[in-house]
Amino acid sequence: MQQEVNYLQQLLATLRTRLLVMAASVGIALEEAGKALAANDPGRATAVMESDAAIDALENEIDEMALQLLARTQPVAGDLRFVVSALRMVVDLERIGDEAVSVAEQAVLMQDTPGCAVIPQVLPMFQRARDAYEQAVRVFRENRADEALQMIHGDGEALQCEVRIIQGIMERLSDPASGLKPPLAMHIILITRSLTRIWRRSINIAEHVYFISQGESLKHNKLDDKTTAPAPLAAEMDAAAAGDGAAAAQKAPAVDEDAE
Fold first, then answer.
1. Is 74 exposed, middle or buried (0-12, 13-18, 19+ CB in 10 A)?
2. Is the pTM of this model over 0.70?
3. Where do the domains of the chain lie?
4. Quick one: 1-214 is in which CATH superfamily?
5. Which 8-state DSSP code applies to residue 226?
């Protein structure tokens, strides 16, 4: 009996390790996509797109590992919740990787777009989305159910940031003096949508962690979120919308070309 328990725990530990490896790979792709966007670097963006195949392979590997674990060991209670959550979490990780690729693709497509310098207006939101992802991974790695619960409030904030950026774009498009052209506006909107998805799927990961730890699903039971965008982020987006791209870019050190 003890031997069976040890075998199960070994399989669970391996599954957890592979999830963390995939999370690290997705984190690298996300960071590199941000650097490509900030530095207008098509080579870095191309590398992000090429890395997606490895992330997809990890998803398939983890799926197979989790299904075999269910079939061979029939886990119960917290162990069962972990395996079920792993099957869900791997989908969120893969989709976040896909959105990093989407950001990289937009960075490449914008190379010949006039007025590309206004793109820093999305960098503050990129930083917040990336912070949410890193927090979600930390919550999973350290099994922080309390912090996972706190992350739920970020769902409304992500949507508010997206709406704020798009409203600013619409206002600038209606003002001929702004210099913003429709092609660039389209790229910015697509990037903003990807950042919202990254942010919200990071919150999904936190929900999975809470379910593993507490046995309670938050999937359709989120608290009402009336939180407004924090003043620093709102100020950065306002500055960018006014055309102060350089100031906004300085507020996003994590995607700076020289950041480690």
1. exposed
2. yes
3. 1-214
4. Phosphate transport system protein phou homolog 2; domain 2 (1.20.58.220)
5. -
Of 17, 192, 197, which Cα lies nearest the Cα of 94?
Answer: 197
- Give dist(CA 170, CA 31) in Å, integer: 28
Copy the structure tokens of residue 181. 């052209």
Q: Which of 153, 134, 113 minimizes the C-alpha distance to 34? A: 134
Question: 59-65: long-range contacts at Cβ-Cβ below 8 A with a sequence spacing of 24 or more?
Answer: 59/22, 59/90, 59/91, 59/93, 59/94, 61/18, 62/15, 62/18, 62/19, 62/22, 62/86, 62/90, 63/87, 63/90, 65/11, 65/14, 65/15, 65/18
Give the largest CA-CA distance in the chain: 76
Cα dist from 61 to 5, 13, 57, 97, whole Å:
23, 15, 6, 16
Q: What is the mean pLDDT of residues 104-128?
A: 75
Burial of 170-200, coded b for 16+ CB within 10 Å and e otherwise, reads eebeeeeebebeeebbebbbebbebbbbbbb
The string of pLDDT tens digits covering residues 176-196 is: 887 778 888 888 889 999 999
In total, the chain counts a number of residues equal to 260
The two three-digit tokens of residue 208, written as one number: 């999975």
N-term to C-term CA, the chain: 48
**Measured distance CA(152)–CA(125) in Å, rounded:** 17
| Residue 144: both structure tokens together | 């922080």
